[in-house]
Amino acid sequence: MEDNTNYFVLKKKAVPEVLLKVVEAKRLLDSGRAESVQEATEQVGISRSSFYKYKDDIFPFHDNVKGKTITMVIQMDDEPGLLSVVLKVVADYQANILTIHQSIPINGVASLTLSVEVLKSTGDISQMVETIERQTGIHYLKILARE
Length: 147
Prior knowledge:
This protein has 147 residues and is of the alpha+beta class.
């Protein structure tokens, strides 16, 4: 089954309240104002199951400002040149590669963790992610963090 992940930019008023509360709970955890998921979800008034259901699917939109870092994990086939293709996409969008870590392939699939710095000249990050996902041999891409 193919996972067709699409990204959308919505105005805050169009986002369901539960998703906004998930973002707020994540902010509380990141800032240290809540020490656990339980505490954060109680503060914002949602269930832990709602938090876990949506936590990886919503995050605040940040303009492409110099110094922002995006960390993603990519599962990809162990094929000669595929890493080069992924790195070329990042270069084409003029993002700066900060770190690369590729695991030893198991059953022909490797896991790649890639951190990139968004520069003022960097193109649309959502398009960059979609371009990487469309490459033959890419199984999965997930944004782990945005700073």
